[in-house]
């Protein structure tokens, strides 16, 4: 079975390739505008695999300038690893050059630009914001800081991700594939340990941990809202909204995303032993059709298909 979804400009007429690629890149990575830097016809393709806790994509492109000036609501953060070639990146107010093996974190909801004068390939891990803030709440302060993939813990993460991608490019699926998303977290934590500002990170960790704990306590209660969270934390509803705004999301969107992740794990674990309706109501939805629509948007497949082993 082929593990990777692929989109390519190869079958598109040369004059239409950039428009086609702008649409594909905006849909599969983040809303951007791409301008070709080469005289030859623009050429690009992208490979994608959805995993249980993240998504991995790999764009391959001839020389180009990629940018976005406005902010958008992404709900995702990306780890971009330079697999082949060299790129200049500006994100989070920082500019960095990535050589092969290097990587950085970028927030696709913020303005950015990337430029490269040779054909390049990146490997991008797309991490749900809710999961990132639950596991590594300090990481978002590291946006735009490059990490070398040639030595130290950065090399451990870089080598792991590049080797994992090489395995994914083969056609045979192993049992390890769905565990890939789980394996990246401790490696990421080691890779960014030396750049983490400890005092600031500790304060943010405590504040966000209290917020996430409040969400988890009442997650499956359909009445959970910003006011319930505020009462549990002993703060104002406005303060809770501000905490979520710092994360680039809203209380409602964050809670729904956590419920969908909980539902997906249960459908995967229990399979046909549980009904979609049971799962929907157990995780906190009070309307089956709303659950199914939200689940399809999140996982690109229906709950019923997901339960049977299908993945988006």
What does this structure look like?
The protein has 312 residues and is an alpha+beta fold. It has two domains: 5-195, Jelly Rolls (Sandwich); 198-307, Homeodomain-like (Arc Repressor Mutant, subunit A). It is built from eleven helices and eleven strands. It has helices at 17-28, 129-135, 152-169, 180-191, 198-217, 226-233, 237-246, 251-270, 276-282, 288-299, 303-307, and strands at 5-8, 33-36, 44-50, 55-61, 64-68, 76-84, 87-91, 94-98, 103-106, 112-116, 120-128. A six-stranded antiparallel β-sheet has the order 1-3-4-11-6-9, sandwiched between helices. The protein has a five-stranded antiparallel β-sheet with strand order 2-5-10-7-8. Strand 3 and strand 4 (55-61) form a beta hairpin. Helix 6 (226-233) crosses helix 7 (237-246) and helix 8 (251-270) crosses helix 10 (288-299). It is globular.
Which key phrases capture this entry?
11 helices; 5-stranded antiparallel β-sheet; alpha+beta; 2 domains; Jelly Rolls; Arc Repressor Mutant, subunit A; globular
């Amino acid at each position: 079975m082929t593990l990777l979804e692929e989109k390519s400009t190869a079958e598109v007429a040369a004059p239409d390739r950039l428009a086609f690629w702008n649409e594909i890149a905006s849909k599969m990575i983040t809303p951007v505008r791409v301008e070709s830097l080469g005289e030859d016809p623009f050429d690009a393709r992208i490979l994608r695999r959805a995993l249980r806790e993240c998504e991995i994509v790999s764009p391959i492109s001839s020389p180009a300038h990629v940018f976005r000036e406005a902010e958008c609501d992404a709900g995702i953060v990306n780890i971009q690893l330079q697999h082949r070639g060299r790129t200049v990146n500006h994100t989070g107010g920082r500019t960095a050059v990535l050589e092969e093996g290097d990587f950085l974190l970028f927030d696709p909801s913020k303005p950015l630009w990337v430029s490269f004068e040779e054909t390049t390939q990146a490997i991008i891990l797309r991490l749900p914001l809710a999961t990132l803030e639950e596991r590594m709440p300090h990481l978002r302060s590291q946006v735009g800081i490059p990490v070398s993939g040639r030595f130290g813990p950065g090399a451990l993460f870089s080598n792991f991700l590049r080797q994992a991608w090489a395995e994914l490019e083969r056609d045979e699926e192993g049992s390890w594939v769905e565990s890939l998303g789980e394996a990246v977290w401790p490696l990421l934590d080691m890779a960014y340990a030396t750049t983490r500002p400890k005092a600031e990170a500790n304060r943010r960790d405590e504040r966000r941990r209290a917020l996430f704990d409040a969400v988890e306590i009442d997650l499956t209660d359909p009445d959970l809202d910003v006011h319930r969270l505020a009462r549990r934390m002993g703060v104002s509803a406005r303060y809770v909204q501000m905490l979520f705004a710092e994360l680039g999301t809203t209380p409602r969107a964050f809670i729904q995303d956590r419920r969908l992740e909980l539902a997906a794990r249960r459908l995967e674990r229990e399979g046909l032993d549980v009904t979609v309706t049971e799962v929907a109501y157990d995780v906190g939805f009070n309307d089956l059709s709303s659950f199914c629509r939200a689940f399809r948007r999140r996982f690109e497949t229906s709950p019923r298909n997901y339960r049977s082993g299908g993945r988006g």
